[in-house]
Design goal:
By secondary structure, this protein is an alpha/beta fold. It has helices at residues 2-11, 16-26, 33-36, 45-57, 89-92, 95-110, 142-145, 174-185, 201-209, 221-234, 248-254, 276-292, 311-324, and strands at residues 63-64, 71-74, 80-85, 114-121, 134-139, 148-152, 155-159, 191-195, 213-218, 241-245, 259-264, 294-304, 329-335, 354-360. Bound molecules: S-adenosylmethionine (SAM).
Length: 364
């Protein structure tokens, strides 16, 4: 579906009206492109969409916007910063209009000025249309934008909006992280393993919930630098955390410890539909290795952000992994992307994120 979208967009690449028409054919009611940046904001559909999302999320300072653009967010304590990611030649044509209108919208919705705005048009998917890859600080202090702090329900996260991965912070896991925090809070002296931790979304949430210790693993040194900044920003004692830089599979193969909770939140293993079978094997291998590191009664949070992999298939492969380990498990949690990531009913792959909480039963 997404490829079809790209091909269609390519045809209309020089015609903004055509692109608006095309995007509107995919948009859910209330996110029509021409209405998204109206001159008269009050009472407009975009006002309702933003209002709904703020109410649903109970948030007033951090959110992603309605979905005509891939991602955009406001964050930080002392001002609002935004990142816009465009993945197609078609959306690139809207960038000038977006960058002009965004400060006005933010002013109207949040009654604050926009401090920094970054364009992150550097995803690999742009190669499909052979469009140039670029990053640009439209406004704001470029150094400050590499050292932003995102606050999420009492946890402080460090983010680099210019050089960090994707748009600088993984907002889509917000609801799942919060559920995870509530769950580990109930486990006395819990030890947690945060695999593919990036800036420490899950592990820092667990520390805030009061767990005894978190082991963070990621192959990116820059990402672990963000975890260190996050630990300091929250005032967590250094002995409550351990950071490992390296490959998760190697780590799991040599790691002898067991944990009360393990999070496996890898990058998308399915890059195209044709490598789905290999990707399923990789997810299953990961879950089996993570399962072996779980104490009886412990919980595995297994995630997939591959839009080619349906939730049912992800569930099946987890069941298979547990069976192959001769285990027994309860499915205790099923989550998807945060509510400000609208899913188009006509485009099931927009529900790309899967998060399953699997408890290892004592008898297993
Ligand atoms: C989807 S992001 C994780 C998001 C993170 N859990 C969060 O909530 O912010 C995937 C991360 O996996 C890391 N990564 C990718 N392949 C890896 C590997 N084989 N071993 C270790 N880390 C890996 C990347 O550097 C990236 O930080």
């Amino acid at each position: 579906m997404r490829i079809m979208f790209l091909k269609k967009a390519q045809k209309a690449v020089y015609d903004v009206a055509e692109i608006e028409k095309l995007l509107n054919s995919y948009a859910s009611p209330g996110t029509r492109v021409e209405e998204n940046f109206p001159d008269d904001f009050e009472g407009s559909p975009v006002e309702h969409v933003l209002g709904d999302q703020m109410m649903l999320n109970g948030l007033d300072h951090i959110m992603e916007a309605p979905a005509i653009i891939r991602k955009i967010f406001w964050a930080s304590e002392n001002g609002y910063d935004a990142v816009i990611q465009s993945n197609t030649a078609g959306m690139d044509l809207m960038l000038t209009r977006l960058t002009e209108r965004l400060p006005v919208l933010i002013e109207r919705v949040f009654q604050v000025s926009l401090r920094g705005l970054v364009l992150r048009c550097d995803s690999a998917v742009r190669r499909l249309e052979a469009v140039e890859s670029f990053r640009k600080v439209v406004c704001g202090d470029p150094t400050a934008l590499t050292r932003v702090e995102v606050q999420e329900e009492g946890v402080r996260y460090a983010a680099d909006l210019v050089g960090g991965q994707k748009t600088g912070f993984f907002l889509d896991q917000r609801a799942n992280r919060i559920q995870f925090g509530a769950l580990v809070r109930e486990i006395p002296y819990a030890r947690v393993l945060d695999l593919f931790c990036c800036s420490g979304g899950w592990g820092l949430r667990a520390l805030k919930a009061g767990v005894a210790h978190v082991t963070f693993v990621d192959k990116s040194r820059d990402a672990l630098g963000l975890v260190e900044r996050g630990l300091a920003a929250n005032g967590f004692a250094p002995e409550r955390a351990e950071l490992h830089c390296g490959d998760v599979f190697d780590f799991l193969a040599r790691e002898p410890d067991s944990y009360d909770a393990v999070v496996a939140d890898p990058p998308a293993f399915v890059k195209s539909r044709k490598n789905l079978p290999q990707a399923i094997k990789a997810y299953q291998k990961l879950s089996r290795m993570a399962w072996r590191r779980l104490k009886p009664g412990g919980v595995l949070f297994a995630c997939s952000c591959s839009h080619h992999l349906a939730e049912g298939d992800f569930l099946n492969l987890q069941a298979d992994a547990v069976a192959k380990e001769h285990g027994l498990a309860h499915l205790i949690y099923r989550g998807g992307p945060a509510q400000d990531h609208p899913v188009l009913l006509s485009m099931p792959e927009t529900s790309y994120l899967k998060c399953l909480g699997i408890r290892k039963l004592e008898a297993a």
